[in-house]
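Entry 14. Ran structure prediction on the chain below.
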Amino acid sequence: MRYLLLVSHGTMAPGVHSVIRMLLGDRDNVLSYSMEDGVSADTFVENLREVIAPITADDSVVVLGDIIGGSPLTNTLNTLTERGLLAKTIAFGGLSLPMAISALMAIEDELDDSTLVSNVISEAREGARQVELAFDDDEDEEDL
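Output, structure tokens:
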């Protein structure tokens, strides 16, 4: 099985996971964990080990972390290394809901690694843009 693992500071990863459940239903292959305020790196790793316990040596993992170089993503990759899973892991920083949905769809469609990476990076780039607002010059502010 290929897993999608969401990790972050605060409650971002569980929040994204919650929205995935709301939009797409519960998925057995989506896991999430976050480093909340006041939690040490050791406690994070200890609890993360429980979260990723279902992942076996036969599985692969797509990790989406909030910040490249941040403690949650770094500790997650170290923990996956301990489990002998790093060679079967694809990792991204910049976690967003569009990236997570794109990764999950690529996993479910059984896309190859290169296409999965391309799709997730493309979604990340396209997902961050300004929303252009157009206003009619004749409208009163009250009509907005």
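The first helix runs from residue 12 to 24. Will compare against last week's run tomorrow.
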